[in-house]
Amino acid sequence: MFLKGKIAVVTGGASGIGLALAVRFIKEGATVVISDINEKAVNEKAIEIGATAIVANVAKEDDVKALVEKATDQFGQIDLFVSNAGIAKFGDPFSPEGDWDFSWHVNVMSQVYAAKYVLPQMIARGDGYLLNTASAAGLLVEFHSAIYSTTKHAAVGFAEWIAATYKGNGIKVSVLCPSAVKTPMAAGVAAMQEGALEPEEVAVAVVKAIEKEQFMISTHASIWPLYSVKSQDYDKYIDLLVERRAYKLALDNKE
């Protein structure tokens, strides 16, 4: 898909990767709707970059439904829906259930809701694109948070299911699995800064991938050797994770 003349919706669009994507999409000639839970920020950024702002809490199904309806009413259709909003909440099996539930709804169910409400119009046209932001933690592991890793694995799995199920209906799907990126979400964690890219660099890679209609969008080639071990020898992969965890957490302890 080439973005010129397309209508794109980007959630989590007031900052970080979402904002960088919106700016890049507009540069490519798309009409962009940015959505965010932060009303002040999304309205200010929309004016700044030349986008349309729609406030939504993507953890709520009714908000996602309204977002799709408002964007469609205003622009006639949605060609590309980017489920980018996410949350990085630290947690483990001992964390309160509310922490798990909130992350589950933001990182996974928001993407389910988006598909539920935007797919019907895309299927009817025989054309449409979903870009779901997950994380390299959905392919490997983020050692700081069981909550984050678990929900991002689920996001990757959902994107795979959508891609396999609706390809015959003309639906294209990409899943963005970035490693370290310099965003507010990763600020203050040393291990998340190692090799970190600027959001604008990620946006360039995303546009190139969308043009090729590429399913997996990765930002760091360094993850693939370990992922290759995972696909061939899971026990060895777990042992390597133990070593990698010690290294990553040691970076934080140096701060």
- The tally of domains stands at 1
What is the general shape?
globular
**Mean pLDDT across all amino acids:** 93
Query: Can you tell me the CATH class?
Result: Alpha Beta
What would the CATH topology be?
Rossmann fold
Would you kindly provide a brief summary of this structure?
The protein is of the alpha/beta class and 255 residues long. The chain has a single domain, classed as 3-Layer(aba) Sandwich (Rossmann fold), CATH 3.40.50.720.
Report on this structure.
This protein is an alpha/beta fold and 255 residues long. The chain has a single domain (7-222), classed as Rossmann fold, CATH 3.40.50.720. 52% of the residues lie in helices and 14% in strands. The chain contains eight helices and seven strands. The chain has helices spanning 16-27, 39-49, 61-75, 97-125, 146-166, 199-212, 223-232, 234-253, and strands at residues 7-11, 31-36, 52-55, 80-83, 128-133, 171-177, 216-218. The chain has a seven-stranded parallel beta sheet with strand order 3-2-1-4-5-6-7, sandwiched between helices. The radius of gyration is 18 Å and the shape is globular.
